[in-house]
Amino acid sequence: MKINRNLKDSVFTALFSDPDLLRELYCALGGVDLPPDVPVSINTLENVMYMELEVKVININEGKNEEIVKQCKILSDYSIFISKIYSLIKTLGNKEEAVTQAVKYCHKHDILKEFLEIHGSEAHNSAPR
Rounded to two decimals, what is the model's pTM? Predict the structure, then answer.
């Protein structure tokens, strides 16, 4: 069984909606160091024709691109959380229960603890039934 892409997307989007965490992610991916007073934001464009688009996909699954992941604790925590869900799906065979157990595991081990206390229900709601 695979994790629903909506689950990963909704958790990732909510997690990096925080400007400080987004800055940390940007620095890790870009190999730069931005001071905390430099504002960062995500701008979404709708109804725009793109003449050129460059997309770089970085695999942040546990054990992949570790040099990037270790530069951003929150990205590392996210990778661990998603990996734990995959592992529990294999063990339990139930995606919804896997998400529940992964949230409990992360809470116990201080992985995305504050984020999951606030957004844990979103992760549950995004899990396929």
Answer: 0.75
